[in-house]
Structures are given as structure tokens and as C-alpha cells.
Amino acid sequence: MFSESILIAFAGLKANKLRAMLTMLGIIIGVGAVIAMVSIGMGVRDKVESSIAGLGSNLLVVTPGAASSGGSRQAAGSGITLNEKDAVAIAQEIGGVNLVAPAVSRSYQVVFGNQNWTTSVQGTTPDILGVRSYTMEEGTFFTNQDVETRARVAVLGKTVAENLFNGGTPIGQTIRINNAPFQVIGVLEAKGESVGGNQDDTIIIPLKTAQERLMGITYVQSINIQASGTDVINQAQEDVATLLRARHKLAPTTPDDFTVRNMVAVMATADATTSMITLLLGVVAGLSLLVGGIGIMNIMLVSVTERTREIGIRKALGARYHNILLQFLIEAVVISVAGGVLGIGLGIASSYAVSSVAGWKTIISSIAIVAAFGFSVMIGLFFGIYPARKAALLDPIEALRYE
Fold first, then answer.
1. What letters, b where the CB count within 10 A reaches 16 and e where it falls short, cover 133-145?
2. Cα 2 to Cα 8: distance, rounded to the nearest angstrom
3. Is the pTM of the predicted complex or chain greater than 0.70?
């Protein structure tokens, strides 16, 4: 009887192709929407995680001025509270710290021959390579001796090298930063976008060269710290704050004149946020599955009405309650399964289309596919029970008299 019920269900769908297709449309759109929305959400989460991870592993960033809230501006002078000695003290006195790299940065126009490019010029120390996980593509990085001698040397990001040299070899060439000559000694491998923008659109020069020969300052604008592991990064953050308060002679009631950002905590917050957004997108898309289920129940009720005499004849010939119930339940499930399969194809195709047309990163999740398909089958069962039960409870005499 089970195999016969399946054949009868397919025969019924084949006899009413357009009606069956329109009924399945709600399930198709619902399953496709769930898969596409979850894929977009997971793509966004992966991009955010990659962006933050690209800044460096186990990273703490100290910036001058207290953390502002509500978009309020920092007080005048709050941006010059850090100096190179603070960075040295952190490296020497704080446990659980691997590398420390103070830095300054400013935007300048860079010229080579008849080419020019405006980019961020960053002055720092060689430790920035390890802190920010930079890798050299060609040439070398500058040394601590270059920092102390205020050497006019520069390491270019990939974007700057491509725009200034158009595929040529930059190593050994002389560029002008704010009209000051600098010799190019290295080019960094491409890292792509990050939270702070394009990491390849930068030039890195020795810290003291930037401070004294370009900017005319003695303070630093940030201190980048690499903790030895995620298990000690929170303690290192607290120790850094305690040390800087002591060095800056801040009274217990005086707020910090610096901010220590924990990028591991930022990543965890971003991951929680994007996961919630992904879940919300999936739930909203899943509501269309309920609409599809209502469509299945509606068409099955119509089918019961149309086939009242058929049901009466089947009962007169010996069909029992569970035989009729099974027949109509199978028809509802066949509609939902067929719609689910087509919806999976629609969802995967939509994900690829969004990725190629809009340029958004999408990650197709097998869990989302299985969950959406399983939910569509459950929808077919749930919304098929009432019409099937109504058909199974028909009185055979009344059904045979139905016109």
C-alpha cells in the first residue's frame, strides 16, 4: 500500500502540473531563501573574522586619549600622551608579551618619476613585522640600527608598489615622500582589506625617521603589542593599563589618558554579532516556508473536496482510515520534498549569483541545506495532517452520494 500510495501521489501531481508547481513554489522560495541568506550571513562573518585576524594574532593596541562614548571628541592634548619610552617599559616589564611596536602615521603624497600616489606613511620599528604578521615579498625590512640612525629607507605595501612602479622593480629606487628622498629596500606581500582599510596601501619607514624628519613630533600615536597567547592576553591588557597609569602618574580618581583595545575580544564580539545576524536572516527567510506550508494545506483541502467520490469508492472497496490518511499525507510530503530539492538548487544558485554579481563573499553551509530541507519535509507533514485526516474521516455513504 505504501508504494501504491506514492504512485497515486505522483499521478495526482502529474494530472495537475500547474497547480502542483504553484503549490511547491512557496517551499522552493522558502528553502532557497534560507540557504541564500545563511550563506550571505556566514560570508559576512568570515570576512569580518579574516579582516580582524589580518591585523595580527593576539593583538593589543594602545592609543592615546580615554575611550570616548557617544561620539564625543577627545580633549585637546589627549593625543600626545604616549611616547617611545612607554613602549620600551611595556616590553621590559609586562609578562606574557612577545613583541611591542610603537608607531606613528600620516598621509603623504609619494612621487616616483612622473607617477604619484597619496598613501599612509607609517613610522615604526622592525617588531611590526611579527606583531602585524607581515611577510616580505622581495627585498628586506629595515633594522633597529636604521631606526637609531634615522635612515631614509622605506618598505612599500603591494598597492603602493603597483601604482608607483607599474610592474617594475622598486628595490633600490628612490622615491620622494613629502619631497624628502627615501630609498626603497623592500616590498610587503599583499594582505588585503582589514578593519582599518587596505593594509597594502601603506609605506613603512623607521620610527625616528618619521618622527624627526617628516612629522616633527616626539610622541607616538599607537603602541602595537603581541601577547604570547590568548590565555594571557586579558591579563596582559590589565597589566599594560596598570603600568601606563603608574608611568603617567594618574591619580586613582583620574580616568585613563589612553585606551587599550583587545583585538581578540573585538573578534569575539564581532563573531557573536554576525552569528546573530546570520540566525536572524535564516529565521526571516524561514517564515516563507510557513507560507509555503499554508499553500500545501490549502491545495490539499481542495484536493480532498475534488476527490470525495474517489475516497468513498476506496472506502467501499475496503480502504481503512490509515490507508486514506497515508495516501494524502504522502501527497503533501511529495510536494514538500520536491519543492525542497528544487529550493536547494535555487539557494545554491542564488548564493553564487550574489557572490559573482554583487562581489559579496558567500559560504554555502551544508548544515543550512540539511536544516532547510528537513524543515520543508516537516512543514509538508504538519500542514498535510489536517486535510489527510479530513479525507480519512469521510463517511463512505455520504462520499458516494457527493456530486
1. ebeeeebebbeee
2. 10
3. no
